[in-house]
Amino acid sequence: xxxxxxxxxxxxxxxxxxxxxxxxxxxxxxxxxxxxxxxxxxxxxxxxxxxxxxxxxxxxxxxxxxxxxxxxxxxxxxxxxxxxxxxxxxxxxxxxxxxxxxxxxxxxxxxxxxxxxxxxxxxxxxxxxxxxxxxxxxxxxxxxxxxxxxxxxxxxxxxxxxxxxxxxxxxxxxxxxxxx
Amino acid sequence: xxxxxxxxxxxxxxxxxxxxxxxxxxxxxxxxxxxxxxxxxxxxxxxxxxxxxxxxxx
Lengths: 180, 58
Known about the structure:
The complex is a heterodimer.
Chain A: E1 3-7, H1 8-13, H2 18-25, H3 34-49, E2 54-60, E3 67-80, H4 88-94, E4 102-113, H5 121-140, E5 144-149, H6 154-159, E6 163-167, E7 174-179
Parallel strand pairs in A: 4-5
Antiparallel strand pairs in A: 1-2, 2-3, 3-4, 5-7, 6-7
Chain B: E1 10-12, H1 15-31, H2 47-55
């Protein structure tokens, strides 16, 4: 599949006008899921500046102004309830802090493809995202990667090797994990 | 995937969730360290490419 991955960080560093970057991001259309549009249009730059996430755009090789898809990566806490029945060995594997009951995990926070992108791009972007996380893990450690998704795509992520862990607190999203 | 996930931790509270995580670790331990994924694209922040991204918007 013919696309190039460009980091939003790199784009912002090489552009004087943030408005131009906004205009570029606003060309991304995903009518299947407006949360994908909302994030890229309204939050991706802000999160980038706050170092809350890193966003990577997949652009068309022949027309790089055409955003075919994107993904956003971050870090989040994995919190153990005080009375969670977990073994010592599992606590060690997850690097749970004994005082706070908190471990770290990578977060695949967004992944989406545009309405006019070729089918199969989502799977390719999932590989690109995991490979970047794998490289981060080699540098700084941490083995758990998490994503939250709606129930209608759970079987897709299961087929890609992800494991359902539970749901978020409001039970609106399935929380899945893969271990590096 | 959801924007909401950037604002929520994963909270592990029951035996079922722990068993699921243990299973994920078991699979990974049996597989061994993840190797570079074949076909993965590396980020390319080439200045000329980024210039072309904005040219297409004009």
